[in-house]
Structures are given as structure tokens and as C-alpha cells.
Amino acid sequence: MNVLQRLFQVSKQAGRFPVAIASNLLTTSSSRVLQHRPAVPAQCFSLSSRRYDLAEFFEDKKNLGENEVKHGRAWNKDELRIKSNADLHKLWFVLLKERNMLLTMEHECNEKMELFPSPERLDKVNESMTNLEDVVRERNRAYFELETGETGERPAKLVTNQLGLKFYYRMFEHVIPKYANRKWKETHQFHYRGSAVHKFLRMYREKLYNVKRKQRNRERNEVMHLLKRFPGMDRVALAEKYPSVDVEKLYKLDKIRGNYVPAKV
Hints:
This protein is mostly helical. 54% of the residues lie in helices and 4% in strands.
């Protein structure tokens, strides 16, 4: 019983509040509530097929025992951008159900020591879900920039952890302020100290340098091998494919010269 109904009963008993005015007040308030009530669409969300068992977590019976299952490609961003928000919402749950089914079947095949047919389906579903999230994030960012002038994304900053490695920390709100939140200070320390950490950073940088150096050497040797076998290759195409290699400098080396007579210019 709301406040107006209680007031109506009290005034009726006391005789100080006319019955007609109270009834009009109730009618006006109810009409205002009905006018300001948001309209609920007839179909807010979609429902999948009604099943009472766990059949949706397993593949179709006609695909059981097959070495390869026919499937399509992943959804790209251009296709997802032309869809409405309702369609993206429905497609997200379709992809989520498909991923759950594929993960269930993959686990079942591993338990039975069998070959999982077409495992690339899981990669395509994950790629589709990633593209869908990117499209939704683009729309949210465009909406917030138009309405508020900000991106609407959670703010982040570049910080260092206790090992001296940098990462983007996504900030979020806390009930307790930062200066009084002792538990947050113990788990979020954005600094490093000690000789062991500095030694680790030196060895980590050396490892990254060796990885880049070996990659450059592999690309250089591959270009030299190609020039030795095919001396008439397009230099511009090689330079675009291997930007870290100086193709013009390799042409002057004796290692790439094969058993051929250079063309006279």
C-alpha cells in the first residue's frame, strides 16, 4: 500500500479530506506514472532453441567420428560494423555457445585420445568474438566522444611492477581512498629496488637484444639465399618484405654471386 492510499484512508476516516479530491489525486498520479513509464519493446532479447538436456554442449551427431567438419570463415570487422546493436548482441551469444561446444568436444576428444575434427574452428570463433568486441568498443567510444567529449574507456597509465617491467594499469574506483587503503598499497607497488632486480633487467634486455639480432641474421641470410638463386629478383619487393635488410648492400657481396654471367648494360 503506497502513501497516497494510506492518506486516502486516513482522510476518509477523519472527514477532513474530500473523497473526490483524493480519488482525483490517485487517478492523476497513476496516469503520470503510466506516462513516464518507459516503453518495453516486444522483443528485448533472443532465445535459442528450447532444450532440456546438455545437447547444446556437444556437436551434432552427424559430425561425430568425422575427420573434418565443414565450416565457414570468421566474421571480420567490416561485416560487423553494418549490423545493429541487437544483432551484435544475438551474434555474441551464438558465438559463445559455439565456443563452449567446441571446448567441450576438444576436452572429450583429449580424454578419449581421439583426433578433434577441424580444430581451426575454435580459432575462428575466438577471432570473431575479438572483432565483435572491437566493433562494440568503437561504437561506445564514438558515442561518449560525441556526448561528453571523452572516450568513455577506463583510464590507464604506464607503470612498472616489482620486477621493473612496464605495463598498462587500468584504474578503477574503490570505496576506501588511496591514502587510507592499506590492502591496495600492499598489492599494488609500482616501483622496484634491489641488486637482484637490476641484474634481472640486464639479463632480460640482453635476451631481447639477442632475439632481435638472430631475427635480423635469419632475414639477411634468407635474402642472400634468394639473391644467389634468383639474381633477377625485384629489389623493391625484397626491400618491402624485409625492411631490416639492406638489399643494395648485399648486391655488392661476393657470397651472393652464382654461376651466371651478369647481363651487360
